[in-house]
Amino acid sequence: MLNQFLSELRDEQIQLDRLRFRKNLERLGAIFAYEVSKKLEYEKKAITTPLGVASVPVLKEHPVLATIFRAGLPFHQGMLDFFDHSDNAFISAYRKYQKNQKFDIHIEYASSPNLLDRTLIISDVMLATGASAVLAYKELLQMGKPKHTHIVTVLASAEGVEFIKKNLPTTKVTLWVGAIDDELTAQSYIVPGLGDAGDLAYGKKNNHDKA
Prior knowledge:
Layout: H1 2-10, H2 18-37, E1 42-49, E2 52-59, E3 64-68, H3 72-82, E4 88-97, E5 103-111, E6 119-123, E7 126-127, H4 131-140, E8 148-157, H5 158-167, E9 173-181, E10 183-184, E11 190-191, H6 197-202
Parallel strand pairs: 3-4, 3-6, 6-8, 7-8, 8-9
Antiparallel strand pairs: 1-2, 4-5, 10-11
């Protein structure tokens, strides 16, 4: 089903329906949350029912969910629907282009709870160069070092995946990817990709430097 929803995200005709595009991102967020939940720690809890007591495995601690504005919002919501007791963190990042079409990634704003020894899940819909995910991770470390971080992305470039592997500690960070495309353009757009996820979810922006 992940591939079904991803195929609809890529389809230029289905993309005309913004509501469906956002909903598919939410659905993918829930699927990723379920998969990540298999790696979390659980403990038995006695639950009183109308007919007795049941011993049920529940999360030892709810993860902190972080997302990068703005494309990440519906993807994040799908994860939050699954981890509905989680604390949340939000990061505003954007591309600052130069005249030669090269760009730098800037973190504009970050809001987060204390992350010390907690499990962190960062959602970033598109992992093109991987730079925004790395910067977001390093920015969040200022809020305390998590015991483990999961970075989840719907679609990545092969280059972006390698960048993550080279620049983040693999013992402390797990990368989850829906699909990997080989090509990245000079402007760092994934090909065939799916286009600008933020624009498709919320409409075209006036300032094309913004993420």
